[in-house]
Amino acid sequence: MIETMGSLTASPWIYVLVAVSVLLDVFLPVLPSGVLVISGAAAAAAAAGGSPARVPDVALLLAVAATASVLGDMAAYRLALRSGPRLDRVIARSRRLTRAHERLGTALARGGGLLVVLARFAPAGRSVVSLGAGKTRRKVGEFLPWSVLAGISWASYSVALGYFGTQWLGTAWLGTAVSTVALFAAGSLAAVLLRRPSPTPAAAA
């Protein structure tokens, strides 16, 4: 399996797999999009300085991952924007979704869309935020800039983990493993921060 992953990350197909995985994981959060990005960056680091010709380019990998992230966000946003009562009923049945959508609306209304960036790192947080932005009918201009920032931040973090982790540790498989743990740790921290209650208007003042 390691050999298969190695041959995959050393071919142009890694860009296609990263794009599709990142694009779709807003609907299927179980897809290993972050692991694919890390693996591609790790392969680039391991092959630097005497590598085969077909190896991921770090800048292109970052651009593909960030662009696919934004496109996936906007697809979920548009879907929720045009959805009918069924999605309303799903949200109403989930206290977690209801709270998340309320917090998102408040954050965007105040111009503080850092919640969108934070949610990009949390498990399923991207799905909740993108669907919530569409369902609460936030304007594209309120949501899109924060989605772009979130995509760039997440892609940059994932690529940096894979690339510099492999350079530091010396081997691609170890760099990928340690970087994946670091990515999940960041996701867990983001999830904890997202669960914290929003400050009340009195406290904020």
From TrEMBL:
Major site of localization recorded for this protein: membrane
Subcellular localization: Cell membrane
InterPro entries (UniProt xref): DedA-like, VTT_dom
Keyword Transferase tagged: no
Pfam families (UniProt xref): VTT_dom
Membrane topology, record value: Multi-pass membrane protein
Keywords: Cell membrane, Membrane, Transmembrane, Transmembrane helix
Family that this chain belongs to: Belongs to the DedA family.
The protein, known as: VTT domain-containing protein
Taxonomic path: Bacteria, Bacillati, Actinomycetota, Actinomycetes, Kitasatosporales
